[in-house]
Amino acid sequence: GIIVGFFGTLLFWRKKLRSELSQRKxxxxxxxxxxxxxxxxxxxxxxxxxxxxxxxxxxxQRSARKITHGEYTTLIGxxxxxxQPSAAEKVLQRIANAGYRPTAxxxxxxxxxxxxQQQAHRALELFRLIGVAGTKSERGSxxxxxxxxDSRAATIDTFHSLVHCFGEVGEPGEALKVLQAMQSExxxxxxxxYNLVINACAQSGDCDRAVEAFNDMQRRGIRPNAGTxxxxxxxxxxxxxxxxxMDVFHVMQRLGIEPTVVTxxxxxxxxxxxx
Length: 275
What we know:
- The protein is mainly alpha-helical.
- The protein has helices at residues 2-48, 53-62, 69-81, 85-97, 104-116, 120-140, 148-168, 172-184, 191-203, 207-219, 226-238, 242-254, 261-274.
- The N and C termini lie far apart (117 Å).
- The model is unreliable at 31-40 and 131-148 (pLDDT under 50).
């Protein structure tokens, strides 16, 4: 009985010791992870303060560890601020080579860098080739580390910037394509995004496309504002369609949207053009 009791006590303390060691090991591992997370956070913060890509690359090399996905995303921002979109695009390949999957936030940042340099076609091409897949994979994969809401907002902002850029270079057809691509990804355009499309059509004298965008806006339940109507009125006025101007104005009144000085000025100009 004494021997059995002795071995029983020995087994009890053995289990207790193992449990204690296991808990301490877990505690040490968690502490190590916390230290690594803190180091990554501090490095990302330092990168965000930089505008010189060479300094950012040197900082990453000095870290002497694997670069995190978040740090690559921050590096894209550094290249974007330095107005080097092609270099920012190369970071996407580095992200893939490191075993990560580029997210919509990554692609949005690179596309936005091209838009800033007035390279809308390259930005749209990049977004179509990579951005659409990136958005979908982000929804269905647990691998990306970026916040989904931030990624979604960045994606919408990039589409918005693309629409604006195509409008500025007088290509309303391309602006409409961006709007359609946005909708195909399940992203809801804003009223000001539609306004940019309508304005691009108006500036090019394409009132049919302006009305197409306006009608699509209403079908999707996006409430137009005074700026929307001002642009549609301008589009009809630019081609001397004063009869349509009054139709648009009546719709504006029916929706209870208050006309502005720009509204009345655009209407006067439309009637002058028709005469």
